[in-house]
Amino acid sequence: MSHKAWMKTVPTENCDVLMTFPDTTDDHTLLWLLNHIRLGIPELIVQVRHHKHTHVYAFFVTATYESLLRGADEIGLRKPVKAEFGGGMRSFSCEEDYIYENIENELYFFTSQERQNIIRYWLENLRAKQGESLHNIHFLEGQPIIPELAARGVIQQIFPLHEQRILKRLMKSWVQAVCEAQPLDEICDYFGVKIAMYFAWLGFYTSAMVYPAVFGSILYTFTESDQTSQDICCVVFAIFNVIWATLFLEEWKRRGAEFAYKWGTLDTPAESIEEPRPQFRGIKRISPVTSAEEFYYPPWKRLLFQCLVSLPVCLACLSIVFLLMLICFQLQEFVLSIQELPRIIRFLPKIVLAVIVTACDELYKKIAYWLNDMGVC
Known about the structure:
Keywords: Membrane, Transmembrane, Transmembrane helix. Belongs to the anoctamin family. By secondary structure, this protein is α+β, with helices and mostly antiparallel strands. The chain has helices spanning 4-7, 27-40, 65-75, 112-124, 145-152, 164-175, 184-191, 193-208, 210-222, 227-262, 270-273, 299-337, 348-375, and strands at 17-20, 44-51, 56-63, 78-80, 89-91, 133-134, 137-138, 157-160, 283-286, 293-296. Residues 4-12 have low confidence and may be disordered.
């Protein structure tokens, strides 16, 4: 079901993350999951809603401000520090909450993206106890419940809700604005650092492309028609592009570091940003490195699957695509060799090739997901 059908059902101030279920979901499944969320994550506030047109149930999930503060401490969320305490960015700590900017303001201390990240972190780390099961789904001890239910189709969708107020403001200052700088700080606050960094790079790249475009246009204008003049201009333009590309990369490194420092991700290790894959299966053991419990899957089993299943399947898929392309090309040559055929028939092999490529893309995507799930679990 479309995300838009739920967006205005409940104001986003009362919901940060929405969880929907298929219309065939029974009451036992809903009550089982609701009970586990309320017992396992008491910080969350869950409201059950029923969409009257599609008959689909949904959980509207949010949390109180005090709970979000504890969650920010738990995940090490980096927040700006007041100038009198040194400024800069620091991982949030409930014991020293007074040192952070806007801590007194419940509405503006957390951005919507930060609230949603904390709540999704809790949801994705709801762990199963030993011997727990739901219908024919048997959980391993310590296995994340919600990602497994989402992978099995018990949960249809889990997604954050937009805030219409902020979207309208971004629409005016960003989408509809002409010849104005992008509001990168507002984009970062709402969509997160990754999205903001992408659009920062895109804007920087677009601006930097002006230089080769102008220089290339000037060269094209003043280039003579003789071959010698054209060759010289090509060499000059190639040298210019080499210099431009070098300067572009170095300047972006500096600009990207400025944004990373400003948004508090310059010295954030990559492993602390993303959680390990929640669907990972294996046997529990004590890590020889960290001495903590972890799921372990023997490398020889993964290698065996890759050699006996993944590699043959990939080779078979490549062979099928290659043969289908050859058939389409042969069909194209055969059609072109018959002069009496109508013009529209001459495009038939190309249309067939386009349909085959689209169908193979969908099929191979599903095969790739399956190989990825089976090959690393």
